Amino acid sequence: MTGGYYRRLASFAGVLRLRLLFLAYAAGVLAVTVVPVRAFDYWGHVPWQAMIRWVPFVVDPLSMILNVVMFVPFGVLVPLIWRRAGATAARLGWLALGASLSIELTQLLLDITLGSRRTVDINDLIANTGGALIGWWVLRLARRESKALAG
Q1: Which of 105, 110, 118, 114 is nearest to 51 (CA)?
Q2: Which pTM was predicted?
């Protein structure tokens, strides 16, 4: 009886640590993508519509790589915290796309209302979703390897 209690307590503590780690990760992503708001003085008088990038794969390679890397932890942490959310690559991909779209729409809203001049880019959606799927794949390989070593 006591052993089961401590196992549940350890499991709860592990999930709590993962959730806190995810919150720290999310705060870091928001700090990089949304928080640096420069109101109305950064780009001069460029209309907000000019800040939207619709053409896929026309992007600085470094920007694409950094956006991929930024969402790899999403693909690792979400399945560890919410099993159903990361049960399939498609489900995790849709969640990552939704999270990335939320960031882009927030940037657009801040641009329209405050003139923050953050670019809203289709390539960010592609790279972020791809990064999350890479994280999901790495986690899946690590779990498979762990099971093979244990069994």
Answers
A1: 118
A2: 0.85
